[in-house]
């Protein structure tokens, strides 16, 4: 298993090519690349040309780290056909960038719209028909997160969608800070996913269902909002013993093809200390689960 840092909290304080050394300085051996305006921005065409990709690859090598995963977020399941077709084109370039960087793991979100779930499902499988041959040819591991406000938000429903693709190259992302949106119990999701679960994000969140639904109040009541945070471990309601215990049970912690990403977004003003805290705390839980540390 690889433990990676998501450098999103540093997007406004560091340039893209500075991320690898920063990640190394914070004690991590791996980095996850998330949407960035100079790389693969949210919903739009990748902006990295071959020269920038080459510069990033060199910066990674110079820092002595590796890129564990690349995370594009594109409208590949959007019910608008023009947007979906564009997203497929953007995906093709994103896959090529990952290949050029020597990265075999890409993770993403289902996207689409929950109020148009049937139309979004059709769009998702239509996109996969075109992208899957490329993904399989390049040996990419494509892992998908049922993100709050996507057309698939629930854990077991996400596994069913992934099974429907019928490819060993497609698997699941479990984001701990989405736990209270996924309906199903974390252990139930992990056990159902088995070896299809190959990437997790480690960040805490409050249970928005607590206090008989009044922990967060929106006006008017019933607004279709999805409240969640990406807090550091211990600042929310995630059951971390259950989380790490479940990953141990399904063999996630002992596999070479799995990635665990620290993805805290709520602490930008203290991001360096929080990143170090996350790594130390993850290793502490791993020591309890496995009797050893992993990095």
Tell me about this structure.
With 295 residues, the protein is α/β, with parallel strands linked by helices. The chain has an 8-stranded parallel β-sheet. The mean pLDDT is 93. It starts with a strand and ends in a 5-residue tail after the last helix. The protein is globular, with a radius of gyration of 18 Å. It contains 9 helices and 8 strands. α1 runs parallel beside α2, α3 (81-101) runs parallel beside α4 and α6 (186-193) runs parallel beside α8 (240-249).
Task: Give short descriptive properties of this protein.
9 helices, 13% strand, 295 residues, alpha/beta, 8-stranded parallel sheet
Secondary structure topology:
Blueprint: E1 2-5, H1 19-25, E2 30-33, H2 50-63, E3 66-70, H3 81-101, E4 105-109, H4 117-138, E5 141-145, H5 155-165, E6 170-175, H6 186-193, E7 197-202, H7 210-213, H8 240-249, E8 259-262, H9 271-290
Parallel strand pairs: 1-2, 1-8, 2-3, 4-5, 5-6, 6-7, 7-8
């Amino acid at each position: 298993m690889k433990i990676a840092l998501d450098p999103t909290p540093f997007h406004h304080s560091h340039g893209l090519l500075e991320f690898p050394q920063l990640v190394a300085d914070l004690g991590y051996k791996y980095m996850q690349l998330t949407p960035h305006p100079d790389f693969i921005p949210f919903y739009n065409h990748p902006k990295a040309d071959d020269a920038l990709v080459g510069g990033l690859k060199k910066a990674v090598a110079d820092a002595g780290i590796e890129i564990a995963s690349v995370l594009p977020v594109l409208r590949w399941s959007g019910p608008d056909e023009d947007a979906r077709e564009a997203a497929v084109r953007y995906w093709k370039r994103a896959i090529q960038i990952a290949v050029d960087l020597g990265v075999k793991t890409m993770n993403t979100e289902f996207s689409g719209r929950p109020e148009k779930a049937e139309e979004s499902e059709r769009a998702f499988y239509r996109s996969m028909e075109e992208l899957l041959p490329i993904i399989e040819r390049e040996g990419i591991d494509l892992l998908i997160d049922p993100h709050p406000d996507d057309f698939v938000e629930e854990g077991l429903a996400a596994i069913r969608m992934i099974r429907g693709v019928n490819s060993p190259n497609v698997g699941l992302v479990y984001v701990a800070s989405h736990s209270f949106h996924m309906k199903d119990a974390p252990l139930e999701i992990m056990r159902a996913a088995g070896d299809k679960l190959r990437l997790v994000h480690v960040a805490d969140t409050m249970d928005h269902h607590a206090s008989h639904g009044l922990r967060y109040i929106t006006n008017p009541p019933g607004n279709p909002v999805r409240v969640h945070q990406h807090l550091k471990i211990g600042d929310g309601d995630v059951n971390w013993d259950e989380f790490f215990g479940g990953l141990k049970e399904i063999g996630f912690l002992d596999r070479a093809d799995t990635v665990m990403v620290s993805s805290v977004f709520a602490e930008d003003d203290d991001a360096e200390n929080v990143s170090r805290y996350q790594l130390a705390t993850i290793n502490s839980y791993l020591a309890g689960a496995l009797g050893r540390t992993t990095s």
